Amino acid sequence: MRLGDNPSKGLAAGDENFVHHVLVPVYIPNHEGYYEHSFEVLKLCLESLRKTTHGRTCISVINNGSSLQVRDWLNAQHAAGAVHEVIHAGPIGKLAAVIKGLVGSACELVTIADADVLFLPGWQAQTARILHRLPKAGVVGIVPQFRMHGYLNGNLILDHLFSGKMRFMPVADRDALRHFYHSIGWGDDYNQDYLEQILGLEFGDLKVLAGSGHFVATYRREIFGDMPTRGKLKLGGTVMYPIDARPRDLGFWRVTTFENYAYHMGNVPEDWMPGLVRDMAWNADAPQTGFSTGRKPSRIYAWRDRFVTRLLRNRKIYIAFLRHFGLPATMRRNF
Fold first, then answer.
1. I want to staple 217 with a disulfide (CB 3.0 to 4.6 A). Which of 40, 141, 241, 333 is the partner?
2. CA 105 to chain CA centroid, nearest Å
3. For the chain, how far is it from start to end, CA to CA, in angstroms?
4. pLDDT tens for residues 282-335?
5. Contact 302, 249 (CB under 8 A)
6. 265 within 8 A of 116, measured Cβ to Cβ
7. What SS3 class is residue 145?
8. Residue 89 in contact with residue 51, Cβ under 8 Å?
9. pLDDT class for 230, splitting at 50, 70, 90?
10. CA-based Rg of the chain, rounded to a whole angstrom?
11. Dmax of the chain from CA atoms?
């Protein structure tokens, strides 16, 4: 039985006026072994995110089957206004968790970040600057990584094969680049030339790197259309492929900021990290808008990417590719 009319009937929905949506999937099922320090990492991640984003940023945390302690803390953060949205789900996997966060989002920009990212000041403004200056950039990472130019980036390579804008250039921050690979458990036995030269593009006073990873990246919202609702894996190198492939299918480029704007903390924070976050000033940047491009998907974009990928698997062609874009001769053989 119902008596009277619902007082909300006919009222306009609230407009929270957000222009940038940040999604952080969280999976901390317990607090032992591998996950012993993950709760501390999560707290640093969210604090650094709050301090480095402007006031029209919506922060959503998708709890992907974490412990009751984490669940209660996230609810308290939401109640205190430290995060705008908390979505609780079972251990459905990272892709499904991200899609849950995307539902209902109307922001022009969407950042997807793992819960072990330590954001640095300036990342949001630089990301927006790149997307404004480069209408064909669809994904912007903020942590430089080795050899990302070859991942779903055939469209960028073909677009700049003879443009004169793409070339190998000196790495901007060798220590930050080295730190990323330490954070994922690598030793120092990789090719040290990767710390010296990296493939980038120069557009006047703006430099970007070719390619982007996906542990933290910002996407144009229009990229997410008919997305699948569930992935087959919880985590792993291919779990985010359906999202990674979408920009390619629209002909967008994957790029990364030339400078480093975040750290990957892994599952154990380092001693210097809490102090860095504590001493950060709050971001006062003005929000930017106007990022939609109206691009439509086409099979030709995926075909171009696959064509380039197959070509670069040929060793002779790859060496010619490195030479064409200016990698020093002493580095080409093992790059």
1. 141
2. 17
3. 72
4. 998 889 888 988 888 889 999 999 999 999 999 999 999 999 999 999 999 999
5. yes
6. yes
7. coil
8. no
9. very low
10. 21
11. 82
Q: What are the C-alpha distances in Å from 172 to residues 47, 169, 197, 309?
A: 26, 9, 9, 27
- How far apart, in whole angstroms, are the C-alpha atoms of residue 287 and residue 309? 37
Distances in whole angstroms, Cα of residue 160 to Cα of each of 60, 165, 238, 324 = 36, 7, 27, 11
Q: Quick one: 2 exposed, middle or buried, by C-beta within 10 A (0-12, 13-18, 19+)?
A: exposed
Residue closest to 217 by CA, chosen among 288, 113, 126:
113
Quick: pLDDT tens for 118-175. 999 999 999 999 999 999 999 999 999 999 999 999 999 999 999 999 999 999 999 9
Distance of CA 125 to the CA centre of its chain: 14
- Report strand pairing: 57-64 vs 20-26: parallel
* Structure-token match 């680049």, residue found: 177
CA proximity to 138, closest of 45, 17, 237, 224: 224
Does the pLDDT value for residue 211 go beyond 50? yes
Residues 6+ apart with CB under 8 A from 298: 249, 250, 251
Question: What was the pLDDT predicted at 47?
Answer: 98
